[in-house]
Amino acid sequence: MRSFWSPTECTNRFQNGVGKRGAEARAAWTAKFEEYKKQFPQQARTTEQDAERQLPDGWDKDLPSFAADPKGMATRESSGKTLNVLARSADPAISHGIFFASTFRVFS
């Protein structure tokens, strides 16, 4: 079995068309982002962390821990407490979209 094949003419046309325009657009974007980094280093770092799917430093420092309790605590309650802490440290665009107040008692 051989891998996907396309005629050389197709590959060349793609590389000289979409491929070339894409490389030029990427270079322009990278140059603009370098300027942005100089003006707004913290915001740029946040953008880079988001793009690399990295959490910000110290994101977990205030997470609660729950002692064993014979009476127990509902999962939705402990989850809500945890999500409230995460919401305070998360980017607003993320925290507003993923936490469900009615289900987890978030922001109560």
What does it look like?
- By secondary structure, the protein is an all-alpha fold.
- The protein has 2 domains: 8-54; 55-108.
- The chain has helices at residues 8-39, 41-51, 75-89, 92-98, 101-104.
- Helix 1 (8-39) runs antiparallel to helix 2.
- It is elongated, with a radius of gyration of 23 Å.
* Unreliable segments of 5+ consecutive residues: 98-103
Helix content: 55-70%
Average pLDDT confidence is 82
**Strand-residue proportion:** under 5%
Overall shape: elongated
What is the succession of H and E elements?
HHHHH
Radius of gyration: 23 Å
Q: Give the N-to-C terminal Cα separation.
A: 60 Å
**Helical segment count:** 5
The tally of strands reads: 0
Q: How many domains, in number, for the residues? A: 2
The largest sheet is: none
Structural class: mainly alpha
Q: Briefly, what is this?
A:
The protein is mostly helical.
Features:
108 residues, 2 domains, elongated
List the helices and strands and how they pair.
Layout: H1 8-39, H2 41-51, H3 75-89, H4 92-98, H5 101-104
